[in-house]
UniProtKB/TrEMBL annotation:
Pfam families reported for this sequence: MFS_1 (PF07690)
Record-annotated membrane-spanning stretches: 12-35, 47-65, 77-104, 165-188, 209-230, 236-257, 269-288, 294-312, 333-350, 356-378
InterPro entries in the cross-refs: MFS, MFS_dom, MFS_Exporter, MFS_trans_sf
Protein name: Putative MFS family arabinose efflux permease
Gene Ontology cellular component list: plasma membrane
UniProtKB keywords: Membrane, Transmembrane, Transmembrane helix, Transport
GO molecular function: transmembrane transporter activity
PROSITE patterns, alphabetized: MFS
């Protein structure tokens, strides 16, 4: 499987592009679904139910995803579930009914739980053993870019064309991802299949990283879910699509400026630096009233996550034996599902009680907690695993 001693071998590049496209498609759907629901007459709490259905399915199915990836041919599993994921987006247009959309979102959550875990696993498999931590740190950057580019694309197509056009655009992106991964043709030896057990679907050594990252994703969930409403309240809706462009710019700057430090193993200073930037960014929402400030917030938000997301993913993949990487990644990715879900839910309550500016500022508490968890346990835990 490891056909080259270089990080950027052909298969790694194809998987990098695939994951970027899959994540961009998934995150593009987040801001367009509420608008689409309103267009077809679904409003109020029903919109929340449609949105929440996927998170519930993803969290419940993540452990099964890990089992499938470690007990079946990983490449074939990814191909099948990516093809199933492609079908989600035309289904929104084919079945514009409240009950049907809930079912579609449940289906989408189940298949995405496999897709979201699957690409990281073969990406680690095609890397030389000595380059896994370094390579996955670069590969995990697809998560950051996808989270930023996706909403921008979804909003732009929906605003300038229609919701139908946006869903078809996302469908095209997923088909392009399927073509890319089909060109990889990764061969795996036969796997000795184990009996399914709930206990075996959680990879214990990845839990500290998952728990730590869960706190760090709470503010992210709040911002992604409620930025459009916040922009409307402040009269800054025209700047919102460009918020995501500045988010990507921040991620690119952080990646280009910190990669050598990550490769050298100086993780601690990067974690604290990114947390300081993110805390100040969230506190600045208390007095955010201009488009320039909104774009600056997007840039610094990207700067922080452009460091944290690849870094923590490299912690997991770099300390996990190859046969357990599927379940390890599935366990770790629960941090995104749970953290984003908590952030969205909390902001829903705080919007009505204290308002979005103060609500965004208060989510900075989650960064402080995450920093304490990292300082008191996760940093030393990673170093112990890395040496063993």
């Amino acid at each position: 499987m490891k056909s080259s001693e270089k990080i950027w071998n052909r298969r790694f590049i194809l998987l990098f592009i695939t994951n970027l496209l899959v994540l961009a498609a998934f995150y593009a759907s987040i801001p367009i679904i509420p608008i689409y629901c309103q267009e077809i007459g679904i409003t109020g709490s029903k919109v929340g139910i449609v949105l929440t259905a996927m998170s519930v399915a993803t969290i419940l199915f993540r452990p099964v995803a890990g089992y499938l990836l470690d007990n079946f041919n990983r490449y074939r599993v990814y191909l099948v579930f990516l093809a199933l994921f492609c079908l989600s987006f035309p289904a929104f247009l084919a079945f514009p009914l409240f009950g049907a959309l809930i079912v579609i979102r449940l289906y989408m959550g189940a298949v995405y739980s496999v897709c979201g875990s699957a690409t990281m696993t073969p990406a680690g498999d095609v890397l030389p053993a000595a380059k896994i931590t370094e390579g996955i740190s670069r590969f995990a950057f697809t998560v950051s870019i996808g989270m930023a580019v996706g909403p921008y694309v979804g909003l732009q197509v929906q605003i300038h064309m229609s919701s139908a056009a946006s869903f078809w655009t996302i469908f095209g992106i997923t088909v392009a991802a399927l073509v890319c991964v089909s060109c990889c043709r990764i061969r795996y030896p036969k796997v000795e299949r184990k009996k399914f057990s709930i206990r075996d679907t959680i990879y214990g050594p990845a839990l500290p990283f998952m728990f730590n990252m869960m706190f760090l994703m709470i503010p992210y969930g709040a911002v992604i879910a409620y930025s459009s409403i916040f922009a409307q309240e402040k009269g800054l809706s025209a700047f919102l699509p460009y918020f995501y462009i500045f988010l990507v710019a921040g991620m690119l700057v952080s990646k280009l400026s910190t990669q050598k430090t990550i490769d050298a193993g100086h993780h601690r200073v990067l974690v604290y630096l990114s947390l300081a930037v993110l805390i100040l960014t969230m506190l600045s929402y208390l007095f955010l009233n201009s488009g320039v400030h909104l774009l600056a917030a997007g840039f610094f938000f990207g700067l922080g996550y452009g460091i944290l997301q690849p870094l923590f993913q490299s912690f997991v993949t770099g300390t996990t034996p190859a046969p357990q990487r599927g379940v390890a990644n599935a366990t770790y990715m629960l941090s995104y599902d749970v953290g984003i879900g908590i952030g969205s839910l909390l902001m829903g309550f705080m919007q009505e009680s204290i308002g979005l500016p103060l609500g965004f500022a208060l989510t900075a508490i989650a960064y402080a907690i995450g920093g304490v968890v990292y300082l008191c346990y996760v940093d030393g835990y990673y170093r112990r695993l890395h040496k063993s």
